[in-house]
Amino acid sequence: MSENNDYSLFDEVNYFVESAAKHLDLDKALIEQIKQCNSIYEFNFPLRNDDGSKEVLTGFRVQHSHHKVPVKGGIRYSEEVNVEEIKGLAALMTYKCALVEIPYGGGKGGVRINPRNYTVSQLEKITRRYTSELIKKNFIGPALDVPAPDYGTGAREMGWITDTYMAFHPDSINAKGCVTGKPLSLHGIPGRNEATGRGVFFGLREAVSVEEDMETLGLKTGLKGKTVIVQGLGNVGYHTAMYLEQAGAKVIGIAEYNGGIYDEKGIDIQKINKYKMDNDGFKDYNKGKFIENSTELLTYECDILVPAALENQITSNNAKDVKAKIIAEAANGPVTQEAEEILLKKNVLIIPDLYINAGGVTVSYFEWLKNLSRVSFGKLQKRYEKQKFQDLLDMMEENTGQKFSEKQKELIIKGASEKDLVESGLEETMVKAYHNMNEIRKKKNIKSLRTAGFVLALERIAISYMDLGIFP
Ligand code: NAD
Q: Which residue minimizes the CA distance to atom 16 of ligand 1?
């Protein structure tokens, strides 16, 4: 729920869809069809603990749009999970996939638990039972609905889901495509773990490369020297911070649920991440200043603010105090619609969730393609290409009499690894989508990048629906 508890995340997403629809000439009934969730499944299941005690847990899976199948979206483990949140996240997936041109409908799932309160063995039981409930109702499958990691889940849970699905479908040759974000040993793909953070980095790099946009913000182009504050040092936050640091940006603040660190000299991301793994919070970290109420960090002076934890972090209560010039919504829904209005008036550039965190679903798509084709990317051509480049260099040396150094040869000859190809596909997707979205913003004279993103996505989804027609 947002600040005044009047709007759910689903309401917020639909508000943005309505704002975008004003810029398009679409049938009202079609917009209504697009806005609604097609299938909603809420269920309860029991968990038997090792000491014999039992408890009942609530799970969800929502399929927002079937204009493209399978539907795709993560599984979240959090105490905050509720049906309106999952509907909102599923809807967001639909628009996200359309914006970055990944051929999926949107979906999302979750279990209402705090995973920190459960042992690994309990989490495995919960994940397997949750999966079996989805199987019973056709809410999972490589051609139907393909989950992935989200807040509170990771490759380990995806491995359990794969194994459970395969146990129920021993004769399905595509079974491994039932979920993405799997461990490499189960035909996951290199680069998936870091994909969302890598995508946030590419998105920010593109945003700060546009001279006229940076001039409006009073910033120079480029990431080098830009100050950054990150909320949530989990999968997305950590990788985003790491790539930004590598590009020469300075991470000066990190907010976690139990306190944050501020250091204007810059925080070493590897060191603080290791510290986070080994300790419960940053209280005794030996560098920078410990900030007990970490949400305060959202209002500290910085060039780029990256909320990478949960939704509704920047609301009408704190938006007026935000000093960042750019907000990159690495999390889903961190800025409420009321906060966005305040921030836009303050001329803040909000790079919206539906674009900036699309790196995860992009690489998930590559993983799913790999599972369906049952071959690693580059496996067939790598050696062939290597030989072609070797022949070319040999010919050039022979014809010109000029010799290349071993280093130069290695650089040219080296064929692309699967990870190189994944990164290149991710970069292409993020670069293209940013400039498409920004061009629409300028062409239609729209203030918000989010509205521009929704305009582009909505138009593409509407075209798919119109081309499909109405059954019967
Ligand atoms: P994660 O569980 O790996 O990390 C979340 C981090 O946020 C944790 O370190 C947690 O302790 C911290 N956190 C929780 N509450 C906080 C608070 N109030 N203040 C500060 N920190 C807090 O989750 P993730 O996969 O990194 O997902 C984070 C966000 O990114 C979610 O909104 C998710 O929907 C979105 N997202 C994730 C992916 C993905 O590929 N994992 C893809 C797209 C979007």
A: 257
Q: How many A from CA of 468 to the centre of ligand 1?
A: 36
Query: Which residue's alpha carbon is nearest to atom 10 within ligand 1?
Result: 232
Q: Compute, in angstroms, the gap from residue 457 CA to the centroid of ligand 1.
A: 24
Q: What are the pocket residues of ligand 1 if the criterion is a CB atom closer than 6 Å to any ligand atom?
A: 149-152, 196, 231-237, 255-257, 294, 308-310, 330-332, 357, 360
Pocket probe for ligand 1: among 123, 153, 236, 280, the residue whose CB has the most ligand atoms within 8 Å is: 236
DSSP state, 320?
A: G
Residue 348 CA, ligand 1 centroid: distance in Å: 23
CA-310 nearest atom, ligand 1: 32
Binning the chain into helix, strand and coil, the percentages to the nearest 5 are 50, 15, 35
Which contiguous run of DSSP H or E holds residue 32?
A: helix 28-35
Encoded tokens for 139: 């809410």
pTM of the model: 0.95
- CA of residue 331 to ligand 1 center, whole Å: 6
What are the b/e assignments for 205-228, b being 16+ CB within 10 Å?
bbbbebeebbeeeebeeebeebbb
Q: Which two tokens stand for residue 63?
A: 């399929």
Q: Which residues are catalytic?
A: 108
Number of residues that this document lists for the chain: 472
- pLDDT tens for the chain, 472 residues: list them: 444 446 899 999 999 999 999 999 999 999 999 999 999 999 999 999 888 999 999 999 999 999 999 999 999 999 999 999 999 999 999 999 999 999 999 999 999 999 999 999 999 999 999 999 999 999 999 999 999 999 999 999 999 999 999 999 999 999 999 999 999 999 999 999 999 999 999 999 999 999 999 999 999 999 999 999 999 999 999 999 999 999 999 999 999 999 999 999 999 999 999 999 999 899 999 999 999 999 999 999 999 999 999 999 999 999 999 999 999 999 999 999 999 999 999 999 999 999 999 999 999 999 999 999 999 999 999 999 999 999 999 999 999 999 999 999 999 998 899 999 999 999 999 999 999 999 999 999 999 999 999 999 999 999 999 999 999 9
CB 304 within 8 A of CB 226: yes
Which of 85, 87, 196, 239 has most ligand 1 atoms within 8 Å of CB, for mutation? 196
Question: How far apart are alpha carbons 327 and 13 in whole angstroms?
Answer: 18
